[in-house]
Amino acid sequence: MHGSTTGMIDELGTEGRHARLSALFDAWSADVHGFVLARAGSHATAQDVTAEVFLAAARAIGGDDPDQVTRSWLLTTARRRLIDHWRRQRTQRNVAERMGGERPTSDAAVDVDRERVRSALASLSHGQRLALTMRYMDDHSVAEVADELDVSYPAAESLLARARRSFRRAWEGT
């Protein structure tokens, strides 16, 4: 799959890229899934992360250097995607805690809390939802939120305070 296949892939175009991705998946999807499962301990997480890895592989194969996608590349990407997954989970837990929720103790609880967070956020106005997301999920400072929303610092603080109260009410109501 290295070196000489690049010319063949270029000649085959889309069909060649599909064939390469299919061959990579057949050869290494079990390795990638096992790698993630051993670290995550959850089949659902392993399936999600494996799918993200092969989506990244599809993009890379369609790019300038399709030969970069090797078993090592796939496992490195899997490790990075798993770290991203853990960060998203931590962020969602932190948002829930900051907004008045309790820390979930299992994957099922995380899924329930994730849905509660989505539901509570959906109940907010667009401005409040945007401000909270920027502040607590994207880790922007209040000054950065103010700049992004083109409001003064005190207005951003006020918006965030109202948004936290609204979120807390929605959270407690779910």
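Next protein, fold it too.
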Amino acid sequence: MEVICGSMFSGKTEELIRRLRRAEMAGQKVEIFKPKIDTRYSDEDVVSHNHNKIPSTAVDSSNEILLLGSNCDVVGIDEAQFFDDGIVEVANQLANGGTRVVIAGLDMDFLGRPFGPMPNLMATAEYVTKVHAICKRTGNLANYSMRISHGKDIVELGETESYEAVSRRVFMDEVLSKNNPESK
């Protein structure tokens, strides 16, 4: 089991697509899954911010992945943070049965907290790759997905109009100023 994690705009999906394409070139049977709620670029394809894409199956729940991916050599899962907690058991069952499972997802939500099932997926994976964006404000590594829109729900689909990848310093400055306006 392999997990690719990081902030928005860090190249998680790009890396997932790269690994899955290599498996296809090796003649392996590959299936890719994504949550049905993720319709930002395509209802069916997994698409990176760089517009690279790979055909996938959109599913409502993690159990569908177990049913549809059980006869594959490699199963790819994008946007794993949006799946129910059962995704951890599904990924482990597939891996225990000999399937290579490659998972991509946000490790933290917009509040900087561990996101959904991602911590448990990272804990049970053999390989964890953390990728980073670049903070446009500081030029440092960006590992936070800071929401710049006004939504309060944990799950809010969006792109650059809603989120910005920022460094720890920028994230902490913004969080502190929002929580304590007199701190400026």
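About the second fold: The chain is about 30% helix and 25% strand.
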